[in-house]
Specification:
Length: about 120
């Protein structure tokens, strides 16, 4: 992958997850309407402070990607959040799936850009 394209994708993903990570603490983005099942699941995640942990991981991963320090590691960790966000919206809230699709595609692209760093893990 071209290094400039990879840098742009890495920084876009970093900004994307920082914004949504900070939003978990500051609530500056409006919460869309959800189905009853989605609201119950999201309420359970919020009441058990799981969303606080997700927000912290998103902020740390975003900073790591922007600063290009430990980005390969945190892109892997961020993949679990990306897949869970996508599955949440695909199953419980299909109307809000757009952001999670963008997150998943950016994360896959960044993982592909870091593929040389993972060769030792996959041998």
């Amino acid at each position: 992958m071209n290094s400039k394209v990879f840098m742009v994708l890495r920084i876009l993903l970093g900004i994307f997850v920082i914004v949504f990570g900070v939003n978990k603490f500051a609530d500056f983005l409006p919460m869309p309407e959800m189905s009853a099942e989605a609201g119950a699941y999201f309420g359970a995640l919020t009441s058990t402070k799981t969303m606080v942990l997700v927000g912290i991981i998103e902020i740390v991963a975003g900073l790591a990607l922007i600063l290009n320090k430990f980005g390969a590691l945190l892109a892997l960790i961020l993949m679990s959040i990306s897949v869970n966000a996508f599955l949440f919206h695909a199953v419980l809230d299909p109307g809000g799936i757009g952001g999670s699709v963008v997150l998943l595609i950016l994360n896959i692209a960044v993982l592909y850009g870091y593929k040389d760093k993972y060769k030792a893990l996959l041998n």
